[in-house]
Amino acid sequence: MSILEENSTLSQRRKLNKKLTKYHQFLEQDANIEVSDAPTKNLVICNTGLVNGLTEETIFEHFEKHGALSGIWMLPGKSFCHVSYEILDSAIQAYKSFNGKLKIAQDNKPIYLLYTNKPAIQNSATTWGELPPGLILINNFINLHEEQQLLDLCIFNKDTSSTMKHRQVKHYGFEFLYTINNVDKNKPLTEVLPSETNFLWSKLGKHKKDFEYFKPDQLTINHYLPGQGIPHHIDTHSAFEDPIVCLSLGSAIVMEFKTENKHVNIMLPQRSLLIMSKESRYNWTHGIVPRKFDVVKNKSQSGFTCLKRGTRVSFTFRKVSTQPCSCAYKSKCDSAKKELAIGEEVASQLEELHVHKVYNNIADHFSDTRHKPWPNVLQFVHSFKSGDILVDIGCGNGKYLANNPLIYDLGCDRSVGLIDICRNRNFEAFIADCLSIPLKDNSADGVISIAVLHHLATETRRIKGLKEIIRILKLGGQALIYVWAHDQMNNYKKSAYIMQDRKNRKSLPKVQTVEESQLVSLSGGEISLPVHTNRSNFQANDILVPWKLKDEEKTTFLRFYHVFEKGELDNLCRKIDNVEIVKSYYDQGNWCVLLKKANVKSIIENKLDDQIE
């Protein structure tokens, strides 16, 4: 070795030792990990982990080359992780080969390794092989010949199949509509279930007596190439009866099941039948992570093996339901709850995450799309006389301010970004939450609240928002309130929201079809909300609506909405003592009410007069 080469190697060693010393101090002092100066079977990857995007699969792919692994531990929210080998020599070889050399970190920098006396194992919610309640897995449900007969049915072409982001799909009986996670029960397909699948149900009856009468009328065939998957979801409760049955052909795969506090990985062998029933059907999400191989925990729980994925075809059989769901899992059930089953604290968190923060992020782009005032709202604004005070609750960019030169008008909004826009336009506007408006009682002649109350997550909070509007109104003052309607085709006339899809289809950014409900993580747990497909009819009352920014990344934000049924807004208003409904109407996809603040005595007298007449 030349002197230059020797000096270079010495310099590299010094840099490596300097890095390792820094990580040694961090792990022992800040992470409470016992680092060992002597080689052990346990290694810690010091500078990358789950928080940096590292996965078990990547670790396994590289580290198993030096020997059998006994464990991989990825710690939530940490930038380090642990790997353990079955034998000491394997750990030593990995340490020598990878330390300061292997680049698997997110920033393409080399990883750094240290020995530990034991891995910092945390109680993980992820388990292997433990089936969720109601989930049944039957291995070798069909033989090789029967599998081939079913695979011969899988001819995908442009006319009879569709291509999703993650796979090819073909439907029989009814088309599964991924935009609504449901089927249109009034539009059966001409292609019924293939007769070649009929033998499955006599087999199922012999295996499980509970399902001997199960006969599906809907089939979805999914064709997965290695590396493809499906997002986590729960099949809509009211759409299908219990159970849902899935046959795996061509290749084994790992499917994940999740609930609020548990995460289960289950290996589905080739030719196995999975029956999702009861709690596993109604309360657990299921999905397949898109990757080319799965790291599978051995039955002994003492190590891992690598399962390389092949082309997999799944036959998912369902029986379309004609009745509302009556399950016990109300928070996940579309039939049981139109109102979210959440408390005030969780509702507040949901609004903060999916309303307040979103509108701060999209304020400029949102303002660019809001120019022309709506005629009926503008007519209301112009109905006030000289010197009257009008307050716009949730004023946005202020498009309804300064339209009537005779009055004093001011606006408030929860979004700092939108209030800044108002102030730059010299409008009187201030930051405020619609649930607590910093104005005196009986101070306004009129109030408008356009597209605000539907962002409140519970009926209790929506009533509170209405009461704030009435509180600041003078006796006899009027308020005009607009909320999004669930029905966007009132009297068979499509709203502007729906019609805009045709007019702007070429100019609007494409909104990716969403196949699942979004799990919103809050301190009180997770809430499952359907993600709406823009410019289409609403399929649920509590939803997340995408807003796509026109930036280089085409960032998409999800806004929470409660879309109102016919009469729902009127019924809310009637729950407030001193409110008189002057007018109620539908306007371009919105339910609208014109309210008047009256004293309770006059309202009672009016009701008595109506009864006498």
Plain-language structure description:
The structure is a single chain. The strands form 8 sheets. A 7-stranded antiparallel sheet has the order 7-17-14-21-12-9-8. The protein starts with a helix and ends with a helix. With 613 residues, the chain is α+β, with helices and mostly antiparallel strands. A hairpin with a 6-residue loop joins strand 3 (69-74) and strand 4.
Count of helical segments? Answer: 13
Beta fraction: 25-35%
Specify the helix fraction band: 10-25%
Quaternary state of this entry equals: single chain
Q: In order across it, which strands form the biggest sheet?
A: 7-17-14-21-12-9-8
C-alpha Rg, in Å? Answer: 30 Å
What is the arithmetic mean of pLDDT? 82
Question: How does the helix and strand content classify structurally?
Answer: alpha+beta
